[in-house]
Amino acid sequence: MTPAPIAVALDAPNLDTAARWASLVTPHVSTVKVGLELYLRYGPDVIATVRGASGVRIFLDLKLHDIPNTVAGAARAVARLKPAILTVHATGGAAMIAAAVEAAPQTQIAAVTLLTSLSEADLARVGIEGPAGDAVRRLAALAVGAGAQALVCSPREVAAVRAEVGPGVTLITPGVRPAGADTQDQARVATPEAAMADGADLLVIGRPITGSPDPGAAAAGIAAALRRTALSRP
């Protein structure tokens, strides 16, 4: 059975837990996500540990944001770990995004548009006026123009971003919560089925899976629901 297009966020307190979660979910999902905390605590070794023998795709979510030369050097440094996806912030600008793409040609560079934890009020406070969707579309177009092969956007904006950038760009959506799940610190959320229906290619899901007593079963349940939804579409 083909693994579901889910990246499980391994926001674990230690490396052993991250490796255990990865081993439990990899039969059911295509990707596991290593974030800033885990990478900074354990360094490059974390990639080999969570990849294990399964060869699961690694989404290295470092959200690089610096001057182009520095981001190029950082992207080059982690490219040797062979992550499938590496994130940078779209707000770093076109030159920075292009530098990352050039420095890591075998890795899909994903530009983060706006963090899903930010509400409209939060955006206004940092000087981004108007609806979040407008800012996301502008950043998406800028990033794709600079060579980004993927974009990270909330499920609330994924349909508009798909219309903006067309079918050739991978859309990654965090802020995905199964129906009835706690939204926690995410402000712009949707269910997995809704996000996929709107055009998402890869769903980032963390605590609804890893916070479950049985992460493997939780991942399998969400994967099965996505398959049922796909089969029911005309």
UniProtKB/TrEMBL annotation:
It holds the Pfam family OMPdecase. GO terms for biological process: 'de novo' pyrimidine nucleobase biosynthetic process; 'de novo' UMP biosynthetic process. One of its GO terms (molecular function) is orotidine-5'-phosphate decarboxylase activity. Substrate binds at residues 11, 33, 61-70, 116, 177, 186, 206-207. Catalyzes the decarboxylation of orotidine 5'-monophosphate (OMP) to uridine 5'-monophosphate (UMP). Belongs to the OMP decarboxylase family. Type 1 subfamily. This is Orotidine 5'-phosphate decarboxylase. The lineage of its organism: Bacteria, Bacillati, Actinomycetota, Actinomycetes, Streptosporangiales. The gene is pyrF.
